[in-house]
TrEMBL record:
PANTHER family: HTH-TYPE TRANSCRIPTIONAL ACTIVATOR RHAS-RELATED, TRANSCRIPTIONAL REGULATORY PROTEIN
PROSITE patterns tied to this protein: HTH_ARAC_FAMILY_2
InterPro entries: AraC-bd, AraC_XylS_family_regulators, Homeodomain-like_sf, HTH-like, HTH_AraC, RmlC-like_jellyroll
UniProt organism field: Microbispora hainanensis
Limits of the HTH araC/xylS-type domain: 186-283
UniProt-listed Pfam families: AraC_binding, HTH_18
Protein name: AraC family transcriptional regulator
The keyword Chaperone belongs to this UniProt entry's keyword annotation: no
């Protein structure tokens, strides 16, 4: 069982390398599970350029002031505050002071949110900063020991805890809508994910789903937070990141992940993660 300390921010801060004060960029991936990533980041100096990912991102600032532009406004996230980013929403990330900033974060696949909600609309949190007093204290426990492996039961528990926060702070208003063809859409999603290096045609999407192409395009975004094209690109980048972490040269990673060339991969990589592949790789702890 996971327990929470009275000051979760201070408790987590002790887990950052050198208390989170060593200069430079550092990214460290913890243990994850299918559809879940956990990351620790410390940034000093240059921050993340504008980017967007296709997952929910919910994290806690541990030191410094994290500032980011989101939906046309400049936001500020202080130590102990949480931030929630919706799939496919552009944002950047820079330090608000010379101290730099550090945080830990959970990336959650929207497909898991869909499963937890039973097909209900994806929650949308318009105000991305959740003050410490309004946060769910139990969430911090899932960030304290990010190297602890997640079994299937813990994967489901963590998902439900994040979904509860998303729903609680969602700005969406309940209303009636046509049900999503989730089973059919999942077949399209699986077709793409099984081999993201292959560019499938709209006719293939229609064939595997039994839906017309307009319905696929519209409902795929409603179900999974992004378009089929963007979903494929992000799965290519997942493959590229694994290759880079294993030491593959940039050009080789680009080729094996199905990009036209290294420059193409680098453009897509920076748009997704806010750093070039070279800077991202150098920052890995």
């Amino acid at each position: 069982m996971r327990h929470e300390s009275p000051d979760s921010g201070a408790d987590l801060r002790r887990h950052l390398p050198d208390g989170g004060t060593r200069p430079g960029h550092r990214l460290r991936f913890g243990s994850g599970a299918a559809g879940i990533e956990r990351l620790e980041a410390c940034l000093d100096g240059e921050g993340f350029s504008t980017h967007r990912h296709d997952t929910y991102a919910i994290g806690m600032t541990l030191r410094g002031v994290q500032t980011f532009r989101y939906r046309g406004e400049q936001r500020h996230c202080l130590p102990g505050d949480w931030h929630v980013l919706h799939p496919d929403e552009p944002h950047d990330g820079v330090a608000g002071t010379d101290e730099g900033f550090g945080y830990r974060i959970i990336y959650l696949d929207p497909a898991l949110v869909q499963e937890a909600l039973g097909g209900a609309p994806l929650p949308f949190v318009a105000d991305p900063v959740i003050a410490r007093r309004d946060a769910d204290p139990a969430l911090a426990a899932w960030l304290r020991d990010i190297d602890d492996p997640l079994d299937e039961a813990e994967r489901l528990t963590l998902t439900l805890r994040v979904v509860r926060t998303l729903v609680r702070h969602s700005s969406a208003r309940p209303g009636r809508r046509a049900p999503l063809a989730l089973e059919a859409l999942t077949r399209v999603r699986d077709l793409i994910a099984d081999d993201p290096t292959t560019r499938h045609t709209l006719a293939e999407f229609e064939q595997v789903s039994g839906l017309d192409r307009w319905t696929v395009a519209r409902q795929f975004r409603e179900a999974f937070g992004t378009s089929p094209t963007r979903f494929r690109t992000m799965r290519q980048l997942d493959l590229a990141r694994r290759l880079l972490r294993d030491g593959a040269p940039l050009a080789e990673a680009a080729q094996l992940a199905g990009f036209a060339d290294q420059a193409h991969m680098s453009r897509m990589f920076k748009r997704a993660y806010g750093l070039t592949p070279a800077k991202w790789t150098a920052a890995l702890a």
